[in-house]
Amino acid sequence: NAGVTQTPKFRILKIGQSMTLQCAQDMNHNYMYWYRQDPGMGLKLIYYSVGAGITDKGEVPNGYNVSRSTTEDFPLRLELAAPSQTSVYFCASSYSNSPNEKLFFGSGTQLSVL
Amino acid sequence: AQKVTQAQTEISVVEKEDVTLDCVYETRDTTYYLFWYKQPPSGELVFLIRRNSFDEQNEISGRYSWNFQKSTSSFNFTITASQVVDSAVYFCALSEVSTDKLIFGTGTRLQVFP
Description:
Shape of chain A: globular
Order of helices and strands of chain B: EEEEEEEEEEEE
Radius of gyration of chain B: 14 Å
Helix content of chain B: under 10%
Largest sheet of chain A: 7 strands, mixed
Strand content of chain A: over 45%
Structural class of chain B: mainly beta
Number of helices of chain A: 0
Number of strands of chain A: 11
Oligomer: heterodimer
Number of helices of chain B: 0
Largest sheet of chain B: 6 strands, mixed
Strand content of chain B: over 45%
């Protein structure tokens, strides 16, 4: 079972560059999420989606954009990379948005902006 | 305000020792859910357990056990006879019904030495 697949695993960007972090899930989950994990901090929600064509901001959306054209894919776009965006990014999905629903996570993308 | 505190940043033990990871939460909700996730060196977070606020029964799963005490707002996780494969970062999380938010603690890094 592939589950949630993220690419790339590592990336180094220069300030001002742009890139897209890819995320795909094969569990037919409607709900997908992007989190960032900073050292010594818990995961912070960047954006989420409740289904194809529907996205919404999370706790820390500034500097990011998302799209959800299909149920499977939920890419995260950084338009003008800044050092503050150096972090580990996790994509996750869930069957529903019920508060008791568990999340399935990808293996993360470690991004450094220099 | 909702909050999850994992005061132990890092714990080191020798194999076969028992270890308890602490989790203290704050919430105004009467209905909420608590989770533990494991993040092994491979990176992806893996769901371990969820507990709703009305179920204070302790749970045991193999070498893992969880102690939920509403009186102290704690949901502690104990690993009995730890093994090297238990080495990971463990996150406690709180999901409130009223806010529909999932809040993660800052994680506890457990290192189990042979």
